[in-house]
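Fold this sequence, please.
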Amino acid sequence: MKVVYRPEQTALGNTGFSPSAGKPALFVDLIKSKPGIEIFSDWEPVSREDLYLVHDPAHVDAILEGRKSNGFGNTLKTVADSLPYTSGSFYNAARIALQEGIAISPTSGFHHASYDQVMGFCTFNGLMVTAVLLKRAKLIESIGIIDFDEHWGNGTMDIIRRLNIDYIRHMAFSDQIGRNYDKWLKGLYASLENDFAGSSILLYQAGADPHIDDPLGGNLTTEQMRLRDRIVFRYAHDKGIPIAWNLAGGYQKPIEKVLELHLNTVEESLQSIYDL
């Protein structure tokens, strides 16, 4: 299973509450020697023009040139320089998944980024960049976005509405907050089939922030999160739908607690390939 990573997608020197800018390198270092994992670095970042497809061009230019704050609330060049690589990682993971069935993009910070605004540690929406580029390349007919980060992907929905996109189906964990999670998990496979049957590809945000100990989450136990991932990967495997997934949120301290939850997702995705 390929992990689509280049060091340029890790932004150093970004301090603050969210660890996501520096998380890619930590995640890759953790899993690079794991059996069944291949670090794939032979790919290119998306272009500024690619970002224009889902974001206001003036907004894109201002962020990349350090004239407007990014999703972390600063104008660090290291963050700006990493952004074409984070979206590029997810897009290339999706392309690999179309060929090989599954791929990992060690990225976060997408779904709050709207057409012309940053929010919640998200600057550019790599989910939407990926979807539009795949469609323009005529590689897919329809896309399913499974957003199981803790928080509502308001930026994704803003871009879908503004651009009048009709080929994306969307499911969010945030719609389940406060409900019976065991019941949700019991019906999740059927819900995936109802929403995503016939999809060309699934883009899965396997967020670590729904965990019960997360300061911005607090809903699912470790085993419930593993079951969540297991059901998603089993569904994709059973139906033969390619799936590209990324890390999304996670805010526990120290960061090793977040990385451990991401590692659980890696193990579940590998099991979907080798043990089903």
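The first strand starts at residue 2 and ends at 4. The chain has a mean pLDDT of 97.
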